């Protein structure tokens, strides 16, 4: 049987094309499903540990002053130095220090936090988390963002 370029495809050719397209779709769906399953399996490995942060010489930090790097803030009050996580407990936005208001404000949904991390207002269910803070032999303040502590913990300066 001769097929001319102007004649419609035969029923057999049409079914072959349909079968090939179906198989290609199934292979693509299987590949996407396998990729999603592998990503999900890798997601259980937990959060990656973040490196400690050097926030400078502790003696240079004056009472009431706030120094922040990345998502960590170090503050000093009459009892000593302390560090807070700048991750809002509501949805994970980054609160910013507003010196003129004397508090941390979350730009996403309006939560406000006192300098000691207490929740003042907003949808956040609790205050900012405290972080482990230590001084090295040269007087530098180091914060471990992977290690939480009570927000009331202070590091006394001698």
Structural account:
The protein has 1 helix and 10 strands; from the N terminus they run H-E-E-E-E-E-E-E-E-E-E. The chain has one helix spanning 11-43; strands at residues 53-57, 66-69, 72-77, 80-85, 96-98, 103-105, 112-113, 119-121, 130-135, 140-149. Strands 1-10-9-4-3-2 form a 6-stranded antiparallel β-sheet, with no helix packed on it. The chain has a 4-stranded antiparallel β-sheet with strand order 5-6-7-8, with no helix packed on it. Strand 2 and strand 3 (72-77) form a beta hairpin. The longest helix is centred in the N-terminal third of the chain and has 33 residues, at 11-43. 19% of the residues are buried. The model has no long low-confidence stretch (mean pLDDT 83).
What is the topological layout?
Elements: H1 11-43, E1 53-57, E2 66-69, E3 72-77, E4 80-85, E5 96-98, E6 103-105, E7 112-113, E8 119-121, E9 130-135, E10 140-149
How many extended strands? Answer: 10
**Outline:** elongated
Low-pLDDT residue intervals, each spanning 5 or more residues = none
Largest sheet: 6 strands, antiparallel
User: Briefly, what CATH class of the largest domain?
Assistant: Mainly Beta
How far apart lie the N and C ends? 100 Å
**Share of helical residues:** 10-25%
Mean residue pLDDT: 83
- What's the helix count? 1
Radius of gyration: 29 Å
